[in-house]
Amino acid sequence: MSIFRVIGAGSPLVDYTIGVDDRFLQQNIPGGKGGTIHIAGAERRRIFSAVTAPVLRTPGGAAANTISALGKLQIGTAFLGKLGNDDDGNFFRQEMAGCGVSTEYLIFPTFVFFKTGAFILSSISTLISILFFFPFSISL
To answer: Are the C-beta atoms of residues 121 and 25 closer than 8 Å to each other?
Structure first.
């Protein structure tokens, strides 16, 4: 059994950050600038297909951000949370482990009903956060 100085528990997220111009926002994003909107899977896929800029994918969530920073400082840390058994879940686990965080307490359930994530579009004059929700395949 490992001993940790700090253990974080929370919602593991994967953030997608994309630099875009105001024209892209006007043409592709519903609603006004400077807010948060909720979109479903089809809308998320439509927006992603319109993106030509590089996409930066990073692990996120308040607890995960704190624990990964402490892990980089070589403080004994672990993270507790549930991950989807998919590419984003594996990415999150690998990135946290790369920061020196123990991932032995991350849970990969055998079924997941929805997947959540943050999709952040930033232009020079605004920052929009889009939370996307889409059905995830179920395997029992």
So the answer is: yes
